[in-house]
Write a structure and sequence with these properties.
By secondary structure, the chain is an alpha+beta fold. The chain has 15 helices and 10 strands. It has an 8-stranded mixed sheet, with helices on both faces. Helix 7 runs parallel beside helix 8 and helix 13 packs across helix 14. The radius of gyration is 35 Å and the shape is elongated.
């Protein structure tokens, strides 16, 4: 080679940068390399850290298989070995990615043949639809008349709707046909619409109440369920489901709520009153404060506190927590 010839200088890159690791990790690598083959605990002491601290710091090297722990024995790959393992791992990753891309490439012609507007395959189709607007009350009445099976309602606010009388007639016809009709109302309905609840009970609707009912819902037999999307009240968008398995799940959800709800007997003076004992216990179990319970049940704060005190006295307990435990033991919840 001729004198004075200047060869290009190849920059030396830190080993850690080749692995995409922070710079301080390389220094740590060089420190633990000297302890390869020995005790991990001894190595930690030599670096003035605990074994747990050292294990945390060498985590990136463990993930790259540069450092291996077998019990208390630590093995650290040499720089050449470390690079070799890293390249081998990357080759496997690239091979798997290549196989995935190949499978996607094979699927592209089929997707093009299907077209953007191709119908769903039968194996993935769900029987139902999303609707907005229209005469939903009329549609529900037709479904009730045309579909067999019992009826289940969640009715958080429907007594305020102009279709209430139309729905009551449909429920009456269903009861006359020997179909069971169950409806769950929020406790405030007892104050807001006692006449409607009494009328519904008179035509054969089985009524229970919960402190709160958060969404509308209708289930007709095993053939149809109707619920708002998203769940709640006041939504013009609805999901009508006819898929049997999904209708079954919705029915199971209603049954769970029904078991938790409280029966509403028709008492003297024609007032529909709930079993306040169970309602109070349910509210207390949910962690509701006295003010919130009063609002939910339509009672004065003073009445709520008096009822809770009487309930605790009946149960023979001193605290609300004990009341919940004892009520559960007696099967009141």
């Amino acid at each position: 080679m001729a004198a004075g010839t200047n060869l290009p200088t190849v920059p030396r890159r830190p080993l850690s940068s080749a692995f995409g690791l922070p710079g301080p990790v390389e220094e740590l690598y060089r420190q633990v390399l000297s302890g390869s083959g020995g005790s991990f605990e001894v190595l930690a002491r030599s670096l003035f850290v605990t074994p747990d601290e050292l294990r945390s710091r060498v985590g990136p090297l463990l993930e790259l298989d540069i450092v291996r722990l077998e019990g208390d024995r630590v093995t650290v790959a040499s720089p050449v070995e470390a690079v070799s393992r890293y390249v081998a791992a990357q080759a496997v990753t690239m091979s798997e990615a290549g196989a995935d891309l190949a499978r996607l490439a094979e699927a592209i012609p089929m997707l093009a043949d299907m077209g953007a507007d191709a119908p769903l395959l039968d194996s993935t189709a769900i029987d139902g639809e999303v609707t907005t607007g229209g005469d939903i009350a009329g549609a529900i009445v037709r479904w009730i008349n045309d579909s067999p099976g019992d009826l289940c309602f969640l009715r958080p606010d429907q007594w305020r709707l102009p279709s209430e009388s139309e729905m009551a007639l449909a429920v009456n016809r269903a009861v006359q046909q020997g179909r069971r009709v169950r409806a769950i109302y929020p406790a405030r309905a007892l104050q807001e619409a006692p006449a409607i609840l009494i009328g519904r009970a008179a035509i054969g609707e089985q009524i229970r109440v919960l402190p709160e009912v958060t969404t509308r819902l209708l289930v007709i037999g095993t053939s149809r369920a109707l619920l708002p999307d998203p769940l709640g009240v006041g939504n013009d968008r609805r999901v009508a489901i006819r898929q049997p398995s999904i209708v079954q799940v919705v029915t199971s959800y209603f049954d769970l709520l029904w078991d938790r709800a409280t029966a509403v007997p028709t008492l003297d003076r024609g007032e529909a009153r709930p079993d306040l004992r169970r309602l109070l216990l349910a509210q207390l179990a949910d962690g509701a404060k006295d003010e919130q319970i009063a609002r939910n049940l339509g009672l004065s704060l003073r009445t709520v506190r008096r009822r809770i005190a009487a309930l605790m006295d009946d149960l023979g307990v001193d605290t609300r927590f004990q009341a919940g435990v004892e009520a559960a033991r007696r099967g009141w919840l």
